[in-house]
User: Fold this.
Amino acid sequence: MGIPLLDLKAQYLELKDELDAAVTDVMANAAFIGGPKVKGLEAAIAEYCGTKHAVACGNGTDALFLILAGMGIGKGDEVITTPFTFFATAEAIAHVGATPVFVDIEPDTYNMDVSKIEAAITERTKAIMPVHIFGQCVDMEPLLEIANRHGLKVIEDACQAIGATYKGTMAGALADAAAFSFFPSKNLGCAGDGGIITTDDDELAAKCRKLASHGTTKKYFHDTLGVNSRLDSLQAAILLVKLPHLDAWNAQRRAAAAIYDELLAGVNGIDLPAARDYGVPVYHLYIVKSTRADEIMDALKNAGIGTALYYPLALHEQEVFEYLGYAAEDLPVAASCDGTTLALPAFPGITRAQIEEVVQVLKGVLA
Ligand SMILES: *Cc1c(COP(=O)(O)O)cnc(C)c1O
Assistant:
């Protein structure tokens, strides 16, 4: 009983025979690193996103790090991003030695407020890193216009947005490069950690590939310091089985979101997520905002319904970023999400009856 936030077991059972066969095949061939599965996945993701290259790596955080490092961004440089994202976005910027510069978010989509970017640009700014949060693309056209005018690189953190589109173009093909994560709970998840970089830039793709492989292109000869960040063949094999189902799963997430939108419309005390008509979102999470989030979450938990805060504390308020010198109120919209934005179950395959059950609990609290 109960309704989980995400049902990964059901997804496995849906494809069990194919997944088991793919895993067994890798084991039998004992090709665990690189090889045809990884090459095949890179080709499949490049085709899916509509980019020239896809470079597999160890996880989404590494994908961001490798892109930044591949672009030569590091000490003394600034990268403009959002404070309302998973920690890894800003972590990757800090790890290359650059400084994350946060701009506030839109109150209804939770995406970076593009109108705030220009004021944050300095002589040190090298790139903008928009995050397509919860699976909805940032308003990329005005963002790219600003970036072009100032000669800045643009890196999509598309970790939550595989399959989403903006004005007909896929997330991952909207800027200089993009990072995706295959963490199990993402819209396309593997059975462990995994990530991939997409780009049309031949030179950047080669650099990222080299950096991910100890900075070498010729085995045992090193002219650059890199890292070890690979996608396992087992993960690639699993992702190749799942990828053909991604669009259907994303459509099911949208259908679930539409039911919530319908059933929660007009309920006082709760803000529903806005969907912009410039694109098609993939609802990595369906997020509602309420100052009574604590009560709602208690009631959901008591009813056996999965929920969690995304995100409990904005990045500009994190202890590790104290050195950046932000006060909470510097980015008031992001700070207003602390402890108020929570996810409702909207996984592929959730039924209308299950959604009605969730809505019943919410209405019980908010009535
Ligand atoms: C998941 C996620 C990442 C990091 O991906 P990992 O594969 O867990 O390293 C980065 N950014 C965002 C927005 C994410 O949701």
